[in-house]
Amino acid sequence: MICSLAPQSRDADIVGGLLDASKVVIEVAIFAALIYVVLRFLRATRGSGIIRGLALVLSSFALAFFILADYLELDRLSWLVGQLAPSFVIGLVVVFHPEIRRAIVHLGDAQIFGRFFRRDAKIVPRLLRAVARLSKERVGALIAIEREASLSELIENGITIDAELNSYLLESIFFPKSALHDGGVVVQDDRIVAASCLFPLSQNQDVDKRLGTRHRAALGLSEETDAMIVVVSEETGSVSTANAGSLNHDLTLEQLESQLDEMFGRSSAS
């Protein structure tokens, strides 16, 4: 009887081990998903430097506290912190509710979702047509194309357009007598979402002092986000781009096309 029960006991141990391993895998996956969401949130927020610093300080403090409390057996203090922690979390949510709301809205823009809900990019050919005509007529323009980092804060401070990206519409917006020609345009996917947006000016002291406001604004936004910014000079008609904190001057349309193709891909314009 004892011998017949031994194999069953071993089988039960194996099943139990597999269940424990499955639980570990599920827990790791949940933690990975949470970390991914947090990283997306930090990246999508223009004020991510402050939030990142705060998160680092709080995480370090919490880790040090729990290690110390466990080592010194500070049961009463641990109980008190456990009681106050929910109120503290609610306070953080109240303070950072605009950033949290923007992060939730733009969480769907992640690449993992974009693979399943991919939209045809018509940015390149339509932008090229608009920039070519704006450059020829020496009409100043400032166009930011959103990538991974959210530009929601700029959009909220601008004038909502929410229209399909169209070269004629871009030209109309930047026409000198247009009410929206001051400021910049924000493009998301294949839509113009806002105009007359104020971009942050670069604070880099090494920037050429001869740069105009449009170029400084393009450079400033590229220092804070991963957006691609296209600038057309009103004085010379020259075309420039700003990306990752660097400014590329006097581009030909072929060079601009190459940069846009590299970042966004190209499909036929309608």
Descriptive notes:
The protein has 270 residues and is α+β, with helices and mostly antiparallel strands. It folds into 2 domains: 2-114, no CATH class; 123-264, 3-Layer(aba) Sandwich (YojJ-like (1). The protein has 10 helices and 7 strands. It has helices at 2-44, 48-72, 75-95, 97-106, 111-114, 123-137, 152-157, 167-174, 213-224, 253-264; strands at residues 141-145, 159-164, 184-188, 191-197, 228-232, 239-243, 246-251. The chain has a 7-stranded mixed β-sheet, sandwiched between helices. Strand 6 and strand 7 (246-251) form a beta hairpin. Helix 1 runs antiparallel to helix 2. The radius of gyration is 26 Å and the shape is elongated. Mean pLDDT is 77; it is low at 111-120.
Q: Which range best describes the helical content: under 10%, 10-25%, 25-40%, 40-55%, 55-70% or over 70%?
A: 55-70%
The ordered H/E elements are: HHHHHHEHEHEEHEEEH
Shape: elongated
Count of individual helical segments: 10
How would you summarize this macromolecular structure in one to three sentences?
With 270 residues, the chain is of the alpha+beta class. The protein is 58% helix and 14% strand.
Task: Give the helix/strand layout.
Elements: H1 2-44, H2 48-72, H3 75-95, H4 97-106, H5 111-114, H6 123-137, E1 141-145, H7 152-157, E2 159-164, H8 167-174, E3 184-188, E4 191-197, H9 213-224, E5 228-232, E6 239-243, E7 246-251, H10 253-264
Parallel strand pairs: 1-3
Antiparallel strand pairs: 1-5, 2-4, 3-4, 5-6, 6-7
Helix pairs in contact: 1-2, 1-4, 6-8, 6-10
